[in-house]
Amino acid sequence: MSRLIVISNRVAVPKARGAAGAQGGLAGALQAALKRNKGLWFGWSGKEVENPSAEPDVQTSDGVTTATIDLKHQDIEEYYSGYANSTLWPLFHYRIDLTEYERETGIGYERVNDLFANTAAPLIEPDDLVWVHDYHFVPLGERLRRQGIKNRLGFFLHTPWPPTRLLVSLPYHERLVRSLLEYDVVGFQCDEWLESFLHYCRKELGADVNEDTGEIRLDDRKVLARSYPIGIDYAHFTGSGDSGEARQAEQRVISSTRRRIAMIGVDRLDYSKGLPEKMDGFARFLERNPGRNQDIVFIQIAPPSREGLESYQQIREELEQKTGQINGAHSRIDLVPIRYVNEGHSMAELYGIYRASKIGFVTPLRDGMNLVAKEYVAAQDPEDPGVLILSQFAGAAQQLDEAVMVNPHSPDDIARAIRKALDMPLDERKRRWEKLHASVRDDDIAKWTQNFVTDLENAG
Ligand code: G6P
To answer: Mind telling me which Gene3D superfamilies this protein's record contains (predicted)?
Structure first.
């Protein structure tokens, strides 16, 4: 078996690990994948230093070897905060209103991709499979090729891929997408993102695209593009439910909500997650159903994210205001409808919290996949499972079609879904959950890794 080299911006150190969904999918999922395929995980240390060393810091812990480099201030500003998170992230989530187009950050992004390629190249041996992840590193494959790397190179995008009409608003879009065609396999979370990508390659690059097989030919390049829906580490996650930590968290929710139903949301504090819209939908439910504030407590866990960026500071303020307004309007001396929690939780605690909550509330405006939805399903009691409310705009909606589907832009739709979930009889809950559960259990992280790695092995 070839050695697997994984390259991603974030490299999770085991101590910092929460559940995959809560920390944003990628790091938790890769940790699980790498434990199975012995290899090397290369990326940013997360640290800013004045004079970064050219040598990566290599460590082995918990069965995974990591190699990380530090970055200097300017690199973080232009590559991470700038082009990756102020240009590509909003654009890939269909938010051209928030997308900043600065040539300088684009240049910084390419420079840092060069830096990663130069540092990674000496670590790569001739038989290795190289698997690059996410929007931080679109041109990395091309940069590795320039370093003389002939290995099979794969790329997986954890976010959505935008429709062509949005993508062409990006200056130098062609240059960015062409660089993707230096990989041998390019993977997406679901068919919708894949179709947009194939459409772009055909319309904008004039590539020869086989829609059935996902084979793209351009000049002398042959690339396979496919969807590989990511899953959770089912065995590990459900295993964590056996711990005292999980049971305690479950009890804390149950005893503090008493006879009311807990509805749980867990999202990074990101504008793509539709948090204000969720609050509006919940407020509409309370307005339309007088007296039912007695039946439900909405617990929203939202760990802050990318706090240096203004768009993230704004969403945080907006959410604090909305929560205050809704609680002000609907609280009684013995009840508060929304518990808004900023602190993060461990995997076991989240398992317990999900299990104690009879409604899972996942309503992103756009999401590559969304692993919180899958973790919620995995944590349910088969004899008395909760109901998943899910945005139709999450990649997960294509697989989890037995969820109560909502349009997160419509407060009425959300309000109706909450009511439906609250009143759903046990037999319907069980019937829906069994199908959801089978999909979450069977299409897990091991299957995702295996599918991608097999295609990469056969490529070229
Ligand atoms: C999303 C991205 C990941 C990213 C994560 C957390 O899930 O797809 O690449 O690591 O968010 O964001 P951060 O900026 O903290 O790495």
So the answer is: Glycogen Phosphorylase B (3.40.50.2000)
